[in-house]
Write a structure and sequence with these properties.
mainly alpha, globular, 2 strands, two-stranded antiparallel ribbon, 9 helices
């Protein structure tokens, strides 16, 4: 997903704040992200609050399909979208947004039915609509501050971003192993490990928000005039932002719900 995130002359970022074309491009990314968040929220509410839908979406095997679908779509895109088109990248974006949104209906279901639950690591959670709202606004505020900093800073974040990408893939591998080993009975659930993994995803995603913002700016200067590539980059940028937002939101929600 980073084919369009190649760095160009860093000196150009000095003039980015007065470039109307760049502002329009970034607004396009944020607008698509906003619509994605709204769609995911609407689907989560339907999946969790409408009994007929909830009984289908939040039970096996559909729930497990939704849980693994985003990762499968991302991995698949690496092999089948070597030269992505605006339409193809847009379909991928909305497909991932939809599957994640439906999967997050479990939070709405807990709030709707007033039930508590334990995570795989044994963390007790009490989720209600107020907790969800608080988590959303905290995440949105943090995301806004991070992307604003990434947009305005003159510091080159490429080294930090490269390290964060490697770290998040390593953490993803650890999370898969941690998910599989308890299923095989080789280790027991660990709330400490779950906190570490969730917090790691949230922290690395926060770093990537600032880096991705700067990379989108650099990509704009590199591809300005190439409308096809710009359209694809808008979809990739919105997708990356959406995934980072969800990672941060899930951690904040778990943190608040465990204290409620």
């Amino acid at each position: 997903m980073n084919d369009f995130n190649q760095s160009v002359a860093r000196g150009r970022t000095l003039d980015a704040s007065i470039d109307q074309g760049l502002r329009s491009f970034m607004l396009g990314v944020y607008t698509k992200l906003t619509w994605g968040i709204l769609l995911a929220g609407a689907l989560a509410y339907v999946a969790g609050a409408v009994p007929a839908v909830r009984d289908i979406v939040l039970t096996a095997p559909i729930y497990y399909v939704l849980a693994f679908a985003p990762a499968a779509l991302i991995f698949g895109s690496m092999f089948f979208m070597k030269n992505p088109s605006p339409t193809g990248s847009a379909i991928l974006y909305w497909a991932i947004v939809s599957t994640i949104g439906l999967g997050m209906g479990v939070y709405v279901a807990m709030a709707e039915m007033g039930i508590s639950s334990q995570t795989a690591g044994g963390i007790q959670q009490n989720i209600n609509y107020m907790v969800i709202a608080k988590a959303f606004f905290i995440t949105a505020s943090a995301f806004g501050a991070l992307t604003l900093w990434g947009y305005s800073t003159k510091r080159d974040l490429s080294a930090i971003g490269s390290f964060a990408i490697m770290a998040i893939w390593a953490l993803f591998a650890v999370s898969v192993v941690y998910m599989i080993l308890p299923m095989l009975g080789l280790i027991g659930p660990s709330s400490g490990m779950e906190w570490l993994i969730s917090g790691g995803f949230a922290l690395i995603s926060a770093v990537l928000v600032a880096w991705q913002t700067q990379e989108l700016k650099e990509g704009y200067y590199q591809l300005a005039g190439d409308h096809r590539s710009m359209a694809v980059m808008t979809n990739w940028g919105a997708l990356n932002f959406f995934i980072m937002f969800v990672n941060m939101f899930r951690f904040v929600l778990m943190l608040l719900a465990s204290r409620d």
